[in-house]
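User: I'm new to structure prediction. If I give you an amino acid sequence, what do you actually give back? Let's try with this one:
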Amino acid sequence: MLGKLSIPNTVNTPSIRNTPHTLSVLATPSLQATARTPSVQAAPNVRNTVRPSAVARLTKSLGGVRGRRKAAVSAALAVGLFAGGAGAALAVGWHTIPRLKSSGTLFSSGTYRFNPKGTEHGGFEFRGKLKDADSGDGHNVYVEVRVEGYDWNRFYGKQKKTVSLHKVVYDAAALYTSDATIRVCRDRGTLHPDNCATAPHYKR
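Assistant: Good question. You get back a string of structure tokens that encode the predicted 3D arrangement of the chain. For your 204 residues, that looks like this:
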């Protein structure tokens, strides 16, 4: 009996999927994008609401943040390099040499330092003022420096004058010099021995 029943025309109406109204709903861009793409960035309606000018401002802002970060890193590196250079300078700082005095000669304002490997042959560097303290004796004066394993190196002044000396003495067979001795003397010629001040000895 049920199979013979006549079905009203409304039942034969095309499925809801085929009705123009339902079709328009399924074809709505916002719903399709929501079903296919969970990312908000890919949804068509989101692209339509975000203006290009806003995106440009956001990109520029992010770029500024990155730029400030890079600048901060560069500044930190510069500070680190400066601090490292200052530490190296302190490591090879100058030390005082006391006044060296003997009859007729004087070495004053003296300082010294041991240079690190790779700088001035790692040698003993000194500077100061050498004075002929007795201009009427007819003799010259000199400073002598000796480093480990070598004889004295002599540096003359000038009669009746005060001269500035700045010299480096090193061991050519070593990467750096570990100890040195310095003294000041008066040159009395070949007939008399030279007179010298007590020679201080320094170690690295």
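You can read the tokens as a compact description of the fold. Here is one thing that stands out. The two ends are 120 Å apart (CA to CA).
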